[in-house]
Write a structure and sequence with these properties.
single chain, alpha+beta, Ribosomal Protein L22, Chain A, two-stranded antiparallel ribbon, about 35% helix
Length: about 130
């Protein structure tokens, strides 16, 4: 069952200027292995992390460096989560995260679908 979706779009030139203006920002947003990538790939990874936060419905307990985008052997991007971020995802009953990323011209985009094996818990007073 789909429990959340998220999408994000990043202007690559603007993102690159922001990283140049605030060099420590990359350390707060990306793992050491991610920081080795080119700016357009970092922009796509930033979009993926933003899209994940949107799919989760917020950033409580989520930490940027605990979200790493790692490619499978085929090149397919995949989330590798750790720490409290992995705990938040598990606590929400999310069993699968689907990720698609792309960059073209001067834009990077990412789309995330969060799935749970069962219906999410309802909030008292909320109607289905």
């Amino acid at each position: 069952m789909i429990v959340g979706i998220g999408i994000d779009l990043v202007d690559i030139d603007r993102f690159e200027r922001t990283l140049a203006r605030t060099p420590r920002l990359a350390e707060r947003l990306f793992s050491a292995s991610e920081r080795e990538r080119k700016p357009r790939s970092l922009a796509a990874r930033y979009a993926a992390k933003e899209a994940l936060i949107k799919a989760l419905g917020g950033s409580d307990g989520v930490h940027w460096t605990e979200i790493e985008i790692t490619p499978e052997a085929s090149g397919r991007p995949w989330f590798t989560l750790s720490g409290s971020t992995a705990e938040v995802v598990a606590a929400r009953g999310i069993t699968t995260l689907h990720l698609s990323m792309s960059h073209d011209a001067n834009l990077a985009t990412a789309y995330v679908v969060a799935e749970a094996g069962h219906a999410p818990p309802t909030v008292p007073g909320e109607h289905a």
